[in-house]
Amino acid sequence: MARIGYARCSAQDQSLDIQVERLKSEGCQPIRSEKVSGASRDGRTELAAVLDFIRKGDELVVVRADRLGRDTRDVLNIVHELDQRGAFLTVLDPHISTRGESGRIVLTVLGMVSQMERRFVLERQREGIQAAKAKGVYKGGTRRLDREKVLTMKADGHGTAAIAKALGCSRMQVYRIIGSEAQAPSV
């Protein structure tokens, strides 16, 4: 029986250190982590690796339920996949385990709250953007990656993982840039 830790944050400039340290202190080994949105399971390669690796009797441990996902259906699907493999989920804050039915109920409620919280954040963001546009001060988001650098490295024969590592971003970001360039109309 293994205790497998999973840590996630949404932004590249956020730190996973506190989550990873907490998982280590709980005896988790291995610990997989990634910096990617929890809005869906798309692009969450480390979570996918954990779900492929986990075996009967193993335990997936996360610090908070929202680190597992921000979509109730995704979280419940993950719990279902763990059930299918004979594994279970433990959330540290607040302590919840899917070993018992009451833990499943609490996890469902927390997943719904997390999803609602995400909708509120997005709504406030949209309202802020609309207000800034009305004042004429909105210029759009700033690009965090040098798109030309990504495309140049790709053209030079570098693989997606190598580009992501060199630029300090996720492979999914590299895939998006390469994919958007491939779909751009030629002039």
From TrEMBL:
Q: What InterPro entries does this protein map onto? A: Homeodomain-like_sf (IPR009057), Resolv_N (IPR006119), Resolvase-like_N_sf (IPR036162), SSR_resolvase (IPR050639)
| Domain Resolvase/invertase-type recombinase catalytic: start-end pairs | 2-136
Tell me where on the tree of life, at the top rank, the source sits. Bacteria
Q: Name one Pfam family in it.
A: HTH_23
Gene Ontology molecular function? DNA binding; DNA strand exchange activity
Q: Which family does it belong to?
A: Belongs to the site-specific recombinase resolvase family.
Could you tell me what this protein is called?
Answer: Resolvase
Provide the species name. Answer: Methylorubrum extorquens (strain ATCC 14718 / DSM 1338 / JCM 2805 / NCIMB 9133 / AM1) (Methylobacterium extorquens)
